[in-house]
Amino acid sequence: MPAKRETYPVEVNGIKRDLRLFEVKPGLKIAILNILGDTEFVRACAEGLAEKLRQVNFDVLVTAETKSIPLAHKLSEALNIPYVVLRKSYKPYMGDALQAETLSITTGEPQTLFLDEKDRHLMEGKRVVVVDDVISTGSTLQGMRMLLQKAGAEVVAEAAIFTEGERARWHDIISLGHLPVFTD
Questions:
Q1: Topology of domain 52-177, CATH
Q2: CA distance 65 to 149
Q3: Domains of the chain: which residue ranges?
Q4: Contacts of 76 (CB under 8 A, 6+ apart)
Q5: Residue 70: closest CA among 44, 48, 39
Q6: What phi and psi values does residue 40 have, to the nearest 5 degrees?
Q7: How far apart are CA 127 and CA 141, in angstroms?
Q8: Is the dihedral of CA 32, 45, 104, 180 positive or negative?
Q9: 21-73 pLDDT, tens per residue?
């Protein structure tokens, strides 16, 4: 029988989940949101964010792979807006891809984001909303902004299921809730 893990409860549109706490460095834990495969929760989150994003005038949704892809897909369906995924590794078929570097809080390692050549035309001169599952440090968000600026897009809003950490830092983010960080 697996050991009982510490969790943090969340609720979105009546759907409840217990998020497992994960130690990112000694004395600091975060609640891990992994929506991959959780169709019910993704649907609830997309419905909640779609309602808030209907107030925003934009052309394209943009997310970084991997965990927020199902959210972007459901939002795309709900809002009838295309979405683009910024990739975390370059593949030769991506052609003349644009790139920007960021630092991941969950891995603690630098990562590079790539905009596939096929998607570059969707960005130039467009108004975009950046969407992520959780915004913690803002490093992925910063990398996405830099890449979209290189592509000639204007970021008009940023959205996430949850923000995390210092709440006042994320007052401009469209979100469904806020996650605390846990210190020993």
A1: Rossmann fold (3.40.50)
A2: 18
A3: 52-177
A4: 61, 82, 83
A5: 39
A6: -60, -45
A7: 16
A8: negative
A9: 999 889 999 999 999 999 999 999 999 999 999 999 999 999 998 899 999 99
